[in-house]
Design a protein that fits this description.
The protein has 74 residues and is mainly alpha-helical. It has two helices and no strands.
Length: 74
């Protein structure tokens, strides 16, 4: 989570899944809202070692960005 100057103010692991699990954008944004963060930085790993972006990666990124804009966060 970041403040209005984009300085990291907190780190939170919001979801631990399996190889085929996706997380809801609301779950990702919930902690930022509860901590009054101005924005968040999202990251995830690729346990398979294949780092190419998947369709699901791109969809989640778009969804997180849209959710952040609706919530007034960057």
């Amino acid at each position: 989570m970041v403040n209005t100057r984009h300085e990291v103010v907190a780190i939170h692991r919001c979801h631990v899944g399996t190889l085929n699990t996706s997380v809801a954008a609301a779950e990702v944004c919930k902690t930022a809202i509860l901590n009054h963060a101005a924005g968040l930085i999202a990251a995830h790993n690729h346990p398979s070692g294949h780092v190419e972006l998947s369709k699901q990666n791109m969809q989640m990124t778009t969804t997180l960005m849209e959710t952040g804009h609706v919530l007034g966060r960057s």
